[in-house]
Amino acid sequence: MNLSHSVWSSVLGFEPPYHSLPTFLAPYFVYLSIFVICFTLYQLAKLLTPQLLREYVLDYIKCLTFVAYPWGHGLARRFYGHPGYLISMVPVNSTTALLMNQGQGNPLGVWGGYLRGAVPLWKLVVKCTILIFAGISAYNLGLLIMSVELHPVYTDIIHKQCETDLKIPAYYGFLLEMFGSLLDSWVGLQALTRSKTVNVVISFVFSGILVIIGVGMTGMYLHPAMATGHSFGCGDTPFLNHILVYWLAPFMGMYWATVINRKFHLQRPTGKENLNGKTKSVDVDKEKNVTEVHNTLSAVRKRNKRV
Questions:
Q1: Each residue of 174-194: pLDDT tens digit?
Q2: Among candidates 99, 110, 83, which has minimal Cα distance to 185?
Q3: Which among 205, 154, 150 is positioned nearest to 21, based on CA atoms?
Q4: Which of 160, 195, 213 is the endpoint of a domain?
Q5: Are 173 and 223 found together in one domain?
Q6: If you ran DSSP here, which 8-state letter would residue 280 be given?
Q7: Where would you find this protein in the cell (predicted)?
């Protein structure tokens, strides 16, 4: 008898009317459990945590959430392949990112802040340390949720020894994770539309495509704390190789993304609504105003000449 059945029987005094979750619900039970737990903690932290510590606590909880989600991503990929993973991951991650809009859940984001001069070195070290612990906690949170054994696959996963995700030589893995992080970080820095929601969705779609490309070679984590939480100590990957592929490579990728973004930044101009409800860019409106002024002055000059 699994844990969920034992709890049901102990509390209610009779056997549950089910044996396991339907397969299509298995990933979403994991997603929902993680979200409910972490979002509750997130809201409590915003209300109860002292201002001095709030920033760090929110970082921890946000990282905890996103690093725990791969337990659900893995199930979606296992049952429905890469399309199932992408269809599940994008709305879950996008919704969470929009609702948890405070805090930094990825060491690469903190590193990017340092590169822009917004985060001092000491805070970079402190935040990355906190996020490492969040990544380890997220792995254990996933194990805890899986331990209810509401689906046979949960049982298989929690009893399976973890394996390394680094399936290629470390130097190839370094290049793959570096270029993946470069592209992912650069796209995340762009404002391709006027809608923040659409930009977030685009960013996660692009991230998902990168993961699909590289998951069979390095795991394509694009998130150092996630890689450490889920794969550190697994298989025969040496410590230095783990640091090289999952920390140094993404940090290098973020560095080059920041450099490139200074030269090539895509941002759609902010528009404003006219009386007909049509959106025009500020630059177009300015150009129109200048043209109207020029035409008015020309007309005045012509009248003066006639007089």
A1: 999 999 999 999 999 999 899
A2: 110
A3: 150
A4: 160
A5: yes
A6: E
A7: Membrane
The closest of 4, 73, 64, 3 to 34, measured between CA atoms, is 64
Helix axes 170-188, 196-214, angle to 10 degrees: 170
Q: For residue 6, name the pLDDT band (cuts at 50, 70, 90).
A: low
194 with 145, same domain?
no
Q: How many CA atoms lie within 13 A of 223 on its CB side?
A: 30
What is the rounded distance in angstroms from the CA atom of residue 91 to the CA atom of residue 86? 9
Residue 78: count of CB within 10 angstroms of its CB: 16
Same domain, 127 and 181: no
Give the helix/strand (H/E) hosting 281. strand 279-281
Q: Is residue 306 part of a domain?
A: no
Which residues fall within 8 angstroms of residue 219, CB to CB, at 6 or more apart? 165, 166, 227, 230, 231
- The three-point CA angle 243-27-180 to 5° equals 35
* Residue-range definition of the domain harbouring residue 105: 1-160
pLDDT tier for residue 295 given thresholds of 50, 70 and 90? low
Chain center to CA of 294: 50
Residue/partner pairs of 240-243 with CB below 8 Å, 24 or more apart? 241/166, 241/170, 241/173, 242/166
- Beta-carbon neighbour count of residue 163 at 10 Å? 12
Q: In terms of domains, do 135 and 256 share one? A: no
Looking at the structure, tell me whether residues 245 and 265 fall in a common domain.
Answer: yes
pLDDT tens sequence across 215-245: 999 999 999 999 999 999 888 899 999 999 9
Q: Does residue 76 register a pLDDT over 80? A: yes
The residues near 153 (Cβ < 8 Å, ≥ 6 apart) are: 26, 75, 78
> Could you say which of 142, 160, 178 is where a domain stops?
160
Beta carbons within 8 Å of 164's beta carbon, 6+ residues apart: 231, 234, 235, 236, 237
- CB-CB contact of 118 with 264 (8 Å): no
The SS3 call for residue 151 is coil
Percent with pLDDT over 70 in the chain: 80
